[in-house]
Amino acid sequence: MCNNCDYTIHGRHHHFGWDNSFVPTERVAPGSTIEFQCLDSSGGQLQADSTVDDVALLDFAKVNPVTGPI
């Protein structure tokens, strides 16, 4: 957790893929401090109590989210 961040980019600001048409989440000045609250590679589909059986239920269109862009 960043105590003196200029910006926080929340986990809800994510995409599943790269595309230069995505509107920037934030525009920041050089030297700014940014905290990123990122989703894990499952895109939040797996939890601490998930089992190996849950992997078979993953929606693979929603894995490896990218946060931003900045």
Cα radius of gyration in angstroms: 15 Å
Number of helices: 1
Average pLDDT: 93
Q: Return the structural class.
A: mainly beta
Question: How many β-strand runs?
Answer: 4
Q: Spatial order of the strands in the main sheet?
A: 1-3
Instruction: Please give the largest β-sheet.
Output: 2 strands, parallel
Distance between the termini: 19 Å
Q: Into which percentage range does the β-strand content fall?
A: 5-15%
Low-confidence stretches are none
Overall geometric form: flat
* Helix-strand sequence: EEEHE
Helix content: under 10%
Oligomer class: single chain
Quickly count the domains.
1
Q: Can you walk me through this structure?
A:
- The chain has one domain.
- It has a two-stranded parallel sheet.
- It has one helix at 52-55; strands spanning 7-9, 14-15, 34-36, 66-67.
- The chain has one helix and four strands; from the N terminus they run βββαβ.
- The mean pLDDT is 93.
- The radius of gyration is 15 Å and the shape is flat.
- With 70 residues, the protein is mainly β.
